[in-house]
């Protein structure tokens, strides 16, 4: 897991306020933090939606020319400005030379995915040969489980966290059914303790220790979609492998959000989508990881032409020369129009670096948490203000940039009032509003403005009731 910063976010906020001789809640604190932010120029690499273009906006409540407060990068990242250029390059190539585009240009269509795979290495902490860019997340999860989940009469369970994202839950259910297994007996779901929202690492490890001999695969998310909890991936990996389990992760909410070291942690396999923090557009090209230790032992259960070595692929002799490791899992040619947006985004990550982004993210989300607790913490309940509870863990190493908020009043009208004011976030059942200040394109001033708009939304919601 990442080392803690030298100064906790709350201490940084208070220090800056002290230097400015103002309250920590003063707008000047946000402006100073933005001044000191070495990554602030990356915001210019993205299209930020204007409030006037948002469907639910109430133009009487906003300045139509202002940027929206976009805190939904955990669901769909913003568009990098270079996406259009890269798409136009490929469309132009197709228009002008047709099939010759398969072999020519900076993204030849035959190897378009491979040309950008190297840009993923630092983001997931893996060697290039361990990474493959293909398909969508759940398709990749199915392909990986077909190879890693080989149940026996004694070892037949898949371990996962409670309230895993539905696609993971359904994928596991269907894999178990494919093997003729009883899903209730074979899906081992780890739940939080009574009255708690998130899982304790010791509880996860205890289940692995006690039941590991009957568990074939452990599949957890890196960061939980609802609570925003960042699981201790190295500890889960080590514990699972000590009991003879394969350990894999769904990194949909972790990739591009927290630092990952899949190779060094010894994770067996992983998969991720790219349209959240990796900003590749809705339904963008997903990725998968297979540790190099499995390169010659774990093979794809379903094979396609693009898993064949490129040097002999076009001999067309139907004698499979499977590429060892992750690239052998490729089935079809890469969709070049999906490669383009991911390429544009990954180049930005290369310039910014995950280490620097994570450092900013810790402070950005910490600043948001500080202000929420200041205005809406439980001790404020006596003042008759609504209580806003952060269910995401407060420990820095146990979360990414997302905070999930629950409220002491119904959230439907609060959410609607936020939307009217140009705040883009989302509500998730049963009662959470998820907000995610993304370090690549969100600012400290965004956080400051969000708190003011939240206050206005709460007041408006109260007036309705």
Automatic annotation (TrEMBL):
Keywords, comma-separated and alphabetical: Acetylation, Cytoplasm, Hydrolase, Pyridine nucleotide biosynthesis, Pyridoxal phosphate
Residues that bind pyridoxal 5'-phosphate: 137-138, 165-168, 221, 250, 253, 275, 305, 333
EC number: 3.7.1.3
Gene3D superfamilies documented for this protein: Aspartate Aminotransferase, domain 1, Type I PLP-dependent aspartate aminotransferase-like (Major domain)
Assigned GO CC terms: cytosol; mitochondrion; nucleoplasm
Cited InterPro entries: Kynureninase, PyrdxlP-dep_Trfase, PyrdxlP-dep_Trfase_major, PyrdxlP-dep_Trfase_small
EC class: hydrolase
Cytoplasm keyword on record: yes
Single GO BP term: L-kynurenine catabolic process
Any GO MF annotation of the entry: kynureninase activity
Cofactor: pyridoxal 5'-phosphate
Pathway it works in: Amino-acid degradation; L-kynurenine degradation; L-alanine and anthranilate from L-kynurenine: step 1/1; Cofactor biosynthesis; NAD(+) biosynthesis; quinolinate from L-kynurenine: step 2/3
Protein location: Cytoplasm
Chemical reaction(s) catalysed: L-kynurenine + H2O = anthranilate + L-alanine + H(+); 3-hydroxy-L-kynurenine + H2O = 3-hydroxyanthranilate + L-alanine + H(+)
Modification N6-(pyridoxal phosphate)lysine occurs at: 276
Function according to Swiss-Prot or TrEMBL: Catalyzes the cleavage of L-kynurenine (L-Kyn) and L-3-hydroxykynurenine (L-3OHKyn) into anthranilic acid (AA) and 3-hydroxyanthranilic acid (3-OHAA), respectively. Has a preference for the L-3-hydroxy form. Also has cysteine-conjugate-beta-lyase activity.
Subunit structure: Homodimer.
Family note: Belongs to the kynureninase family.
Name of the molecule in the record: Kynureninase
Organism: Myotis lucifugus
